[in-house]
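Standup notes, protein team

Yesterday: finished cleaning the Allacma fusca set.
Today: Cytochrome P450 structure.
Blockers: none.

Input for Cytochrome P450:
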Amino acid sequence: MSSVLLIAILGLTAIAFFLMRKGQKGKLPPGPTQLPFFGNALSIGKRPHAKFMEWAKIYGDIMTVRIFNKRIIMINDVNIARDAFNKLPLTGRAYVEPFEVYFKGVDDFPEEVARGVLGSEGQAWVEQRRFTLRHLRDFGFGKHQAMEEHIHEEVRSLLSWVRAQNGQPVGMWRRFAEATSNVLWRIIAGERIHQKQEETAIIESANR
């Protein structure tokens, strides 16, 4: 009985693998071999970014990866990614439970407005992007290098702080929040928010 069950399982696995490979042929970018049911989940290991970089060298700038039942098209080139993110058909957003709960909880605005440029898709994304870029240009975005310089400054500051930790595990959410807030604060107030300042405590309180 056990041998019959084993043969049946192996047969179903082989059929599933064959159908999966047949369905992908000629339709999706290349990628690593996928196991039935698991996809590439068992191959990623503890350092997913390193494995993705390894696969990118083999399969190119655009590749297909599957994590269990979730198929992912990965873009490994910044220029291709920039071009893709400007195309309307590629504005679809993945379902992320915390985001969905948050957006549905905003009652003062229509959902397509509450989602903003990061959470919207389709025509709503086009309108949100146009609105955002128009107002960013009022602050000088695209006219000179001020904003880009602010971003680079915050990136350098963040990297310097990470190196100073000497490889020790650290919580990054606060540092990312500070870097992002500093870029916006430089636009609004013309100065940085330094660590331990009163403004930093206010931002942390607002994020809780």
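Follow-up from PR in the comments: Residues 144-207 form one domain.
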